[in-house]
Specification:
By secondary structure, the chain is of the alpha/beta class. It contains 14 helices and 14 strands.
Amino acid sequence: MRTLPGILVLMLLSSLTSAEESVKGSVLKKGHRVAIVGDSITEQKLYSKYIETYLTVCLSDLDLHVIQLGWSGETAPGFLGRMNNDLLPWKPDVVTTCYGMNDGSYRAYDESIGKRYQTAMTEIVGRLKKSGATVVVGGPGAVDLNYFKNPNTKPEVYNNNLSQLSGLAKKLAETEGFPHADVFGAMMSAQEKAKAALGQNYDVCGKDGFHPGPNGHLLMAYAFLKGLGIDGQIGSITVDLKGKAASTEGHKILGEETGKVELESSRYPFCFAGDDKSSGGTKSILPFVPFNADLNRLTLVVKNLDGASGKVTWGAASKSFPREELEKGINLAAEFPDNNPFVESFRKVEGLIGAKQSFETGMIKSMITTFPRLVDSMGKDKAVEASVEGLRKQLFETQEKMEASVRNTARPVKHTITVAAEK
């Protein structure tokens, strides 16, 4: 059993490895179908919602399709037993997996735990690979150092267990040539930093110890988006006070005058919610994870500014920056995280995705997963099998209509950036 100092060293190494071993190039291609699979933490529909929202509005040009298949209390062997019926008929191109929290059995790690997890995950990944899908092999998250209460297992002991399972997931990913999402490393690294800054009562992994709030789910989304190999460049806008404005793909210049540019953007920055200290929002965790730097860069470059500093007005918000920073480029998404022209549209899309994912939970758990038992109970009657497959098709068509509604809502946003010199 590792000691607490050993755990801390493991955490540091894990976070460094995660930063240094980001996937080279995105696994996503235009039109890909992406499935998000996991246990009750996935069924919370938070990190899965953040991932889908990001893929929908930040990478709008890829026209991706997303479904979540979270199941409360599930282990890797549990998903293995239902994946042929619940997932494969949807024909995913990319699948993210997040198992291990329940596989660890909420006790100290032993070889039987690792063997059971590894055997099931190997079969899951093997089947998906055979189907032609790319798997982002995610390990489990972490438990909260303050709120995880188990009469038989201290949080540092269970985090050691989870770190072992995360290591097995990483090894499997390497063996199969797939990317790994270091969920455990992201959560442990941020947890230590956040609790040091905001106090031990600031929960990162949830007030029950293992079901995170929005802050922890943003960390999970970060790990998976990094695993997908996303480069994080939302776009770049240049305002030249003595020349013409310029922008990259996804940001169309509608008009300009000295120090002012009007744009229409189809690629949104990711937007955050909550205050600086609440685990009930996503904003409070930002100082402890490089989400904006790695995944959310909407860069403004200002040229030929006559003054030591300049005031940038974006929508209804204004902020001053030294000339040197503006010339180098500032990240609008980081500097205006919760008060920018995209927030309203972002929230609408996020809300519709939440409703769609709620439908998916009911669709899978109440109906689709029962199909094999129904067919068996009717003696594998061919007419019943045909009826069941017809119902499956109708359910997927309904899911696709909800997805179309999401896309129709994710319309380009018109916004204005003004830069004024300050003496």
